[in-house]
Amino acid sequence: MLTSRPGPSTGGTDAPAPDADGYGAPRRLWRALDRNRPPGVDAADRSWRSPLRGPWLTAVYGSVLLVALPLVIVTGLLDYAAYGPRFDQAFPSNVGWLRLPTFDWPTRPSWLFRVTQGLHVTLGIVLIPVVLGKLWSVIPKLFNWPPARSLAQVLERLTLLLLVGGILFQIATGLLNIQYAYLFGFDFYTAHYFGAWIFTGAFVAHVVLKLPRLITALRSRPLGAELRTPRAATRPEPPDPDKLVAARPGPATVSRRGAVGLVGGGALLLAALTVGQSLDGPLRRTALLLPRGRQPGPGPNGFPVNRTIAAAGVRPEQTGPGWRLMLRGSGRTVTLDRPGLLAMAQHTAALPISCVEGWSTRQTWTGVRLRDLAALVGVADPAAARVSSLERAGLFRTAVLAPNQVLDPDSLLALRVNGVDLSPDHGYPARVIVPALPGVHCTKWVAEIDFQGRADD
Ligand SMILES: Nc1nc2c(c(=O)[nH]1)N[C@H]1C(S)=C(S)[C@@H](COP(=O)(O)O)O[C@H]1N2
Ligand SMILES: [Mo]
């Protein structure tokens, strides 16, 4: 149906009004496309018949994402910053001009990384039904013909491609990563980092383009009234310029309340199956979706293990009585055995281990303060400390700590946990634990710490 609206006066020329038929330049192209409709598009157009689709429902799902996705984006970028990009140990390490301003990741509050990482993974999972609901609500637009009516619309559609492709890619890679399923033939960190920027760019463009429409749509029907409308009284919205409303709507099989409830219920269910991995106590047992979510076994060492001693290739004889800790700094080397470390001043702190794969747990650690170890080799004012493990291969066999992370009074080379010796899987004879430090940098089976003084650089 092509009804021409009277366009603004163009001074008596016979040029058609700019919006006479909804086409921008090059009009001939769009018209030709419209005349040559590929087989099936009209049938596809008619087969989307749900009377629920329309600007209001799309805007309801959209407004949830508008509020929540920025949190996922920001916490994700903060996690990257927490890895200490200035020591070249964030992944991917070379991000070119996408480099973020670096700052020293604080050690306080000690649960900071637990919260940023927990929010990123948990919200990322919980929002999946909302993303799917939103995509369902706009899916007929995929079959619109002609695919665009102006060059501006071509650009808009390209951002949609990056938006939808981007979020599906981020969800897929993120989910596979927290399941430790590296099915993809590329590096997870690189893919997820660059994917994040592509998605974020498209998200910002989409919000700028669609925010006015979202507001109008939300205002078009009061939420409360809509959520009280039963299925029998559910009517399609009036036809909209975006053609979200079906051309020939069928009868409603659920109400809008049902559609919102289904998505909300799915999100709640995922939340219930996920949050347990970031909480201690009985709720932990509800983390059914996550491989390391639940408590592995009883006893003081009964909390998640990310990489076992066997998987790390550390042999039991390396951690026996022959084990030595090598400390280096200001040209000095000091070697200590475990009894020597236990004879030093011991400090106890309750600190979380927070894994980038999403789980976290707070335990009570006892050991020697890192700053006391630095002082042993005469480094009172460290610029950095490189910790190395007995582990020979593996991405996390070494980590660099920043000055605030060495000097915090709760930063420990832990020897014991919850009143007993560390288990082999938790890093016996000694492991690093530092407030708010990402789990990946809490090196287990420590062999050496190299303290760099300020004067050294
Ligand atoms: N040497 C070494 N230390 C390591 C790792 C590793 O692979 N090798 N994994 C790290 C990761 S990713 C996490 S989350 C924590 C988990 O500590 P846990 O296994 O004691 O819970 O250990 C860290 N320490
Ligand atoms: Mo981890």
Automatic annotation (TrEMBL):
SUPFAM superfamilies noted in UniProt: Oxidoreductase molybdopterin-binding domain
Chain residue ranges for the region called Disordered: 1-25, 227-249
Domain Oxidoreductase molybdopterin-binding, first and last residues per copy: 320-453
GO molecular function: oxidoreductase activity
InterPro entries for the chain: Mopterin_OxRdtase_euk, OxRdtase_Mopterin-bd_dom, OxRdtase_Mopterin-bd_sf
Residue stretches of biased makeup (Low complexity): 11-25
Protein name: Oxidoreductase molybdopterin binding domain-containing protein
Keywords from the named record: Membrane, Transmembrane, Transmembrane helix
Transmembrane parts of this sequence: 56-78, 118-139, 160-182, 188-209
